[in-house]
Amino acid sequence: MASGGSIVVCGETLVDLVPATGGLWRPVPGGGPYNTAIAAAKLGAPAALLTHVSRDAFGRQCVQKLAEAGVDQSLVMRHELPATLAVADIDENGTAQYQFYWRGTANDVVIKSLPDPVDAPVAIWAGSIASVLWSERDEVRAWILRHYADIPLTFDVNVRPTLIADRETYAERLVPWLSIAQVARASTDDLEYLYPGVSVRDTVGGWFDEHPRIEIAVITCGSEGSLAFRRGEPSPLHVPAHPVTVVDTVGAGDTYSGAFLDGFYRSRLDLPEALHRAAVAAAITCTRHGAQPPDAVELANELRRTRS
């Protein structure tokens, strides 16, 4: 695989409503896939986003932010339905929980066909809400296999229990995606919800046994950093969290994913370096309100500071 190349991200775009001063709410374009594409693009990766976007004012704001970040919009599907909303409840530790308004919005549509693919990328990313709730989620998976069968797929679990309350149904809908992924990413919170009482090591071991295409499982552990399990290796790689003063964690996991895709696949860094770089990028996002991933200069400066 040559260095360089683009990244294709597949999944939802929505608008986060985050608390603002005076008891008001501030609309912020977001969604895990949306933020992941922007995070990768801001680091210099040519990124394209396969997504649904409303033509309303919120949707136009989302598209404008994609353009500003340099994300290729040729895979964006636009609709007359209103934008999907996620109301954020941010606790005293800066951790956000979301209540989603999904039904009857731009992500709750039935389409006749998906867009024509972009030129062969170096990596594909899929996951989050779209992978379990989009009506055409099976078609998206088939689209990926048809056009990008030889391109490594990273699947991001990113559980949202308020949208599918039944744990078994949620876990079952993830299986077809895990079966085609080379890299599986989840948080410890995701795993605790999906597989209660099962250790991280046993969960990942089960993934390796049941899904032979998975070569790497990356588990983010909040302030404890992250663990990367490689097929055939007895012990995981532990990457410490990068210490910062947290404002909130909105978009941190998405930044981690975007930076990992850029570092591991486009820049061809080795796994430890790619994960460290992703952790630092995510930490920078945590120092800001909302999902504001760093650009390449900001990340390079912070990496240089940590090494001095």
UniProtKB/TrEMBL annotation:
Keywords: ATP-binding, Kinase, Nucleotide-binding, Transferase
Gene Ontology molecular-function annotations: ATP binding; kinase activity
Database matches in InterPro entries: Carboh/pur_kinase_PfkB_CS, PfkB_Carbo_kinase, PfkB_dom, Ribokinase-like
Pfam families xrefs: PfkB
Entry's family note: Belongs to the carbohydrate kinase PfkB family.
PANTHER family: HEXOKINASE FAMILY MEMBER, PSEUDOURIDINE KINASE-RELATED
Protein name per UniProt: Fructokinase
Species lineage: Bacteria, Bacillati, Actinomycetota, Actinomycetes, Mycobacteriales
